[in-house]
Design a protein that fits this description.
The complex is a heterotetramer of chains A (about 240), B (about 290), C (about 425) and D (about 325).
Chain A (H helix, E strand, L loop, with lengths): L5 E10 L2 E11 L4 E5 L6 H8 L7 E6 L2 E2 L5 H7 L1 E3 L12 H11 L4 H14 L15 H13 L5 E5 L7 H16 L3 E5 L3 H7 L2 E6 L2 E6 L1 H4 L3 H13 L4
Parallel strand pairs in A: 3-8, 3-9, 6-7, 7-8
Antiparallel strand pairs in A: 1-2, 1-4, 4-5, 9-10
Helix pairs in contact in A: 3-4, 3-5
Chain C lengths: L1 H26 L1 H7 L2 E7 L6 H20 L11 E7 L4 H14 L4 E4 L3 H14 L3 E3 L15 E3 L4 H17 L7 E7 L2 H16 L3 E8 L7 H10 L3 E5 L2 H13 L5 E5 L1 H4 L1 H7 L7 E4 L6 H4 L2 H14 L5 H20 L4 H10 L29 E6 L2 E6 L13
Parallel strand pairs in C: 1-2, 1-3, 3-4, 4-5, 6-7, 6-8, 8-9, 9-10
Antiparallel strand pairs in C: 10-11, 11-12
Helix pairs in contact in C: 3-14, 4-5, 6-7, 14-15
Chain D lengths: L1 H16 L6 H27 L8 H17 L3 H23 L4 H21 L1 H4 L5 E2 L15 H23 L2 H11 L1 H6 L4 H27 L1 E2 L1 H4 L2 H14 L6 H20 L5 H16 L4 H11 L4 H10 L1
Antiparallel strand pairs in D: 1-2
The chains are: A alpha/beta (about 240), B mainly alpha (about 290), C alpha/beta (about 425), D mainly alpha (about 325).
Amino acid sequence: MPEPLLALRGVCKSFGAVRSLVDVDLVIAPSSVVGLIGPNGAGKSTLINILTGVYQPDSGSVIFGGKDLVGVSTAQRARLGLVRTFQRPSPIVDLSAIEGVMVGGLVRGLSRTDARAEAQAHLARLGLRAEAERSPRTLPTGRLKLLDFARVLMLRPKLVLLDELMSGLSGGELEIVLDTIDALAAEGIVFLVVEHLMEVIQRLSRSLVVMDAGSVIAHGPPEQVVRDRRVVEAYLGSDALATPC
Amino acid sequence: MTILLQAVINGLLIGGVYALAAMGVSLMFGIMKLINFAHGEFIMLGMYIAVVFTGVGIPAGLLGIYWVVIPTMVVTAGVGALFYVALLDRAARFGESPQILLTIGLSIGGIGLAQVVAGSDFKLPPNPVNGASLALGDITFQVGPGIAFLLAVAMAIWMAWMLKRTRFGKNARAVAESRETAEMLGVNAHHVFLVTTTISIALAGLAGALVIPYHYTYPSVGEDFVVMAFLAVVIAGLGNVLGSVLGGLLLGCIQSLTATYFDIDLSTAAIYVLFLAVLLLRPEGLFTAARRTV
Amino acid sequence: MTGSIVGSRLSRRRFGMLSGVALSSGLLPARLSAQEPINLAVIGPMNGSNAVGGEMVVRASKLAVEDVNAAGGIHALNGAKLNLIIADSTDNAQGAITTTERVLSQQKIAGVFGLVISPLTAAAIPALIKHRVSVITASTADSLVTPANGGYLFMIGPTGSALGRVAVDFVRASNTAKTTNVTKAAILYINNAYGQSAQKGVEKLVRESGIDVVLNSAYPENMTDASPLVTKVARSGADVLFPLSDVTDAGLILTALHSARSKVLVFGAGSGFTWPPIGQSLGEKVNGLFGAAAWNWDMKNVVSDPKLVNVTTRYEKVYGGYMPEQAGEAYGAMWMFALAMEKTASADSEKLRDALATMKVTSGYPTIIQPGLVEFGANGANPNVKAVMIQWQGGKPRTVFPPELATHQILTPH
Amino acid sequence: MRSCAAICAMLAVVAAASFLIQDSYILGVMTVTTFLAIWGQSWNLLSGLSGNVSLGHSVFIAMPAYVTVVLFQTWHVPVLAGALLGIAAAVALAAFIGAATLRLSGPYFALATLSASAVMLSLILHFSDITGGPNGIPIAFTEADWTNLEFDHTRSYLLVGLGLLCVVTIFVAGFRRSRLGFYVAVIKSSEAVARAAGIRIALVKVVIYCMSAALTAAGAVVYVFYLRFLDPGFLAGLTLSVEIALFAVVGGTGFLAGPILGAAFYELIDVVANARFGDVGGWDVMVLGFSVVVIVMTEPRGLCELALRLVRAGGAPARMRSVQREAK
């Protein structure tokens, strides 16, 4: 078995009395698309924030590409290839669409000309060529999310955390994203996909991680995981409880 | 030793007014995420209103002048509500810089307005509180600042109770945490903001009414108090209402101790050094335990 | 939108002014000389915490101009009337410069009184020199007393250090008379131009008198509480305190002294001890308080001249309250300009400057400033003027020192 | 870039027009406005573009002004050399304050900088042996000598100021298109997004804070020789700090012309109100303050936005629309 790209060992995180992550172990292989699901409050967001360095774990370790991430800032992690998108679209309103994407290349040290050329390629791949010079103020949500995706791809990532990237996309946009993920995964980029849309998860993921109440309760091939009794209970039980808002 | 004790007591008593001013600033920031740079001018307004009320009459007895406190707070509360309805409600959508500039414009204009309406004279109605003190051995307690201190402590306790126990307090904390979530849960954020502004400005009025027995009232008087209030708020941790009270008292003490033992001219600098140290070592504020607002 | 409204108002004003200048200078020279009013300007802070000083200067100047005009204007110029132009210097140097430029460049100005606060006066001097217009000021900073001001600055009142010195002189006199026995002095001074000048005067003289200076401390203008200073005074063991203060800080110091039940003797200097606010705020308690003043409404030279008494009583009637120090100086200064015009038969600012530099006035309204000779030395200062010591008696400041100007006995507080 | 060229052309027109004006007051007001605009533009580089509101920019005026003048008067250091040292001192100060405070979010920074200017003032007043304290320092005029920044005509200061304003404007325009400018735009949008995009936020912010300080200081060293008097209460005071912030916001932080228009508008209101109401205390300040309130309430994005809206409503010619697109 090859050395894992990402390994979490015994990660805990509490906020006051609330235990948000309890002893999480998670290993992600260097070539895969992993789905991450769980009811609201299961700890998915906390996990992403731990991985990207927004929070420091209370205990446990996070190893990425063989490097311990303790004390490594979010920005450094991004430059190491650990990147994320956000649930909400995050347009750079003072820049044009393509300029917002170029930023990812500039951070890597590209010249502006090179960054522009590469950004052009990403935009073309995601079907955004026509919008390249427009202000994000004038673009709809789906387009903005594609721009966010293009920006993180510009960072030449190793691991991409997609936090509900696909919700809010039109059918056509969703197809483009799914195809892009498939293609990039084939090139060796790993995706950790947090999503509520089960059909998306099932189509993309080669393995599935299920969280509930701060713990990983299942991890394995999707068809096997969805039949897991604890998963079914967590979902059925939580559906009634966890949807007031 | 007597000198040291006296210096600390002086500091705590001066700090009472800073604390009252800081509480208002902090409450507004904690809940509305807005720094009211015109807060000093609302203190000034409170002072003028209180001075006008003293014109009605000052009952005999040492503390007679304090009857003006309640009516002053009522009037300033009304002004606060108007402030929210007329300006802040709409300005909430503008983002940070325009909001800051709005309150700054209000602060400049307010000073001018005060001079136009009330003239540039220094006003201080003769009253027995001015210069009065209680003595305990060699230690003296100034009556005017002392009462401000006691009321600051009382207001802090009331505020703690209100934010924790009352319906408004719970709603306010929810809005402070996340306005969106709170609104989804049925909290009327506008109402919370209106009440918050009203309380904050009434606190400015209270601070104003408590200073007039021993401090001159004039158009630009607010500036002298409000800078200290801002520092207290930041040292405590922005939005930490109770911490800001401690912050105000702490600043009073630092000011008094530097002034007594070194040089009062350096007390601003001493406080700033503390402020930078807090920013570097405890950016969440001296009195903030976790990442909690209010 | 707002911009265009304001803009049009501005351009109309400008046009009005420009055409006015064109008319007076070019078209009708002969006829105007008799009737054209002569402009004197009062420039001073009308905003901020110094506005009270600006306001009293304006009031007294108005009174003086009314009096000159009522007496038939400037006789040497066919009875030309004086016209007062009032302008706000704001409370900063940039504003003072801009305002001075505006006033001097948009109309013919014979002379300027004011700027009130020393840094504003200092800032405006280059503009005044450029336009060759002289200024008489009641500012007190010693740093203004210098020939470098090109002979365009005249200081009508005593300097800050003289103001401080009279307080020490007074203590020295009472030490000699055995009314007091002072050996250790504390000095608290406001950290502005006035305070620093006064402190220099006090400290020098105190040391010369063989009294120890046990505390010498500046405090900031925007101080909100003086109790730490008073604790410090107590700690120093001083038996006399010289607070050299403006208004709010003087109030705070007195409050803190009362609260601390301090027994220290207090001889203040500056507006905080001599202007109306302290009397209004302390009520009865003010009586007995001493302060050094640049001028007082009941100095001997004033009360002994019915004409001058008429001035101070009218001031009191019109504005409510006695005539405070800078008001008296402003009134006298306006008359200095009027006399200079009479002497030169001219309203030309340069000629007036020359006249002011050489005039020796021994009678008439300028003697409201001081008895005897009023003149300006080469450094611009008024060499004969004396600061006085006042004591609050019956709710008003009364002159008690020096003997040649005093009108009241010292009341010893019980 | 087109809006930048348009602004520089406008400034050139102003410079040419100044030769038709002889009134020293109007020239003086134009000069003051120009320097205020320089500071507004420098402020906007930091605060407008990154969203971190500084309310203490006067420290970068007082610091270089005092360094230059004190070095010149006490140790006869040539003015231009002293000015460079002064600017360097301002940058060092910015690096220090920035490193301590810029890690934190907006309101902390606003308050931290606000108090920095209060401390600067108290230090200037305290160390009066060096700084002249509250008396300030007059700068005597000896002879016209450009190496000492001494000109015998106000117009010369105006022309130097206009040139400097052009340089600063071109710098800001170029900055917005630069690598760092892109980073700042991301930071303004969202610090979380900037971090996730691998941008070293603290470093970027400190760097632009230093740049902003340097540009502000460059204006300051020329300006004090126009003013010929170091007034501590003005140069290090809260009022100036706050006014500088007002210019950009009143004009519109998102526009290259915003701070210039804002400074012109503010100074116009100031001098008109002062001339009109100056004899009755309070009115001028009241008009000034409340007009800021009215502008913010009418158009929080500033006068430029308001102007664009009016142009749009009045059937804008195509050329104006292109300027507007670019300004965005």
